[in-house]
Amino acid sequence: MKVNCEGCAGCCIDWRAIAPTVSSHERRGPRKPLDDAYNLVPLTREDVRSFLDAGLADALTPRLWEDESGVEIDGVELAAIEGKPVFFVGIRKPLKPVAPFDTDASWLPTCAFLDPKTLQCRIHETDVYPEECAEYPGHNLKLGQQTECERVENAFDGERLLNDEPPRALSGLLLGPQALGQKVFVYPDPDGLTGVIDRLIDGELTDRDRARFVAAAVAGRPGTTGTNHEHYENALHEVGSADSWVGRAIPEWEVMATTEKPDPSVATRVEDERGAPPTPDW
Ligand code: SF4
Ligand code: SF4
């Protein structure tokens, strides 16, 4: 596997707004995500724990799905196991000023950890670099699924996927029951989600809402639908105390997106000066 990522970041940005045709690859099949995120990176339990330990859990957000055979909350049938809603944990995508694929800069939903200036990942090869990002697009190649690199090639020309041989060393796919508590988590108290589902659909989750899912992910007992309630309360407190550069930058990006022209260089003030790790440039 060999990819040409310079000037791309197609797998880190929701670039549907500037695409000639829109892919809905995340919204096929019977279960539809409640959020509108594109290319959500599903984090493993270990990834989530690392973000928590690094004080970066304020960058995380849940994904839940509609499913007619699930549990009803706020008038929505949610995918559930044993009556408990299931979810992924991913990374937030605020609007940032980015110019991928040699386009003019525009405000696009962008991974909270992507440096808009260089289009490089600020946590690349650090302790919190997600497994899914480190291996992308390895699993797609192994399963014969289209990659984001190819979607970018189709939309903007250029060569992105230079070698499509799947890598030999690849983590397990974590599908089916073995994913429970490792990549797919359950929320222990469905009644406690009243109001939260409405806010999720409206894109208005609060810090507290997101924290509850992060805590449930790390406090779940792997392979079961059980939750360690003491771990849950401790984790909830930890996430609630997170006050990182990334969490503080997101509200500013969201305000700027409604008032200012897109200029990637402002990331120096909004992110770097708040303590964001620099990227090496190409
Ligand atoms: S879409 Fe492919 S080429 Fe583009 S940044 Fe992601 S891995 Fe690299
Ligand atoms: S963590 Fe890094 S590589 Fe993964 S989506 Fe975000 S910016 Fe991209």
What does this structure look like?
The protein has 282 residues and is an alpha+beta fold. It is built from nine helices and 13 strands. The protein has helices spanning 45-53, 131-135, 138-143, 148-156, 196-201, 207-219, 229-241, 245-259, 267-270, and strands at 2-3, 32-33, 60-63, 65-73, 76-78, 80-81, 84-91, 95-98, 106-109, 114-115, 120-121, 161-163, 185-186. The longest helix is centred in the last third of the chain and has 15 residues, at 245-259. The protein is globular. 39% of the residues are buried. The structure holds iron/sulfur cluster (2 copies).
Write down the overall geometry. globular
Which ions and ligands are bound to the chains? Answer: iron/sulfur cluster
Give the SSE string: EEHEEEEEEEEEHHHEEHHHHH
* Rg over C-alpha atoms, rounded to the nearest angstrom: 18 Å
N-C termini distance: 19 Å
SS-based class: alpha+beta
Strand runs, count: 13
Proportion in β-strands:
15-25%
- What is the mean pLDDT? 94
Unreliable spans are none
Domain count, please report it.
1
Largest sheet: 4 strands, antiparallel
Helix content: 25-40%
Number of helices: 9
List the helices and strands and how they pair.
Layout: E1 2-3, E2 32-33, H1 45-53, E3 60-63, E4 65-73, E5 76-78, E6 80-81, E7 84-91, E8 95-98, E9 106-109, E10 114-115, E11 120-121, H2 131-135, H3 138-143, H4 148-156, E12 161-163, E13 185-186, H5 196-201, H6 207-219, H7 229-241, H8 245-259, H9 267-270
Antiparallel strand pairs: 1-12, 2-4, 3-7, 4-5, 6-7, 7-13, 8-9, 10-11
One iron/sulfur cluster binds at residues 12, 41, 91, 111, 113-114, 121, 123, 130, 133.
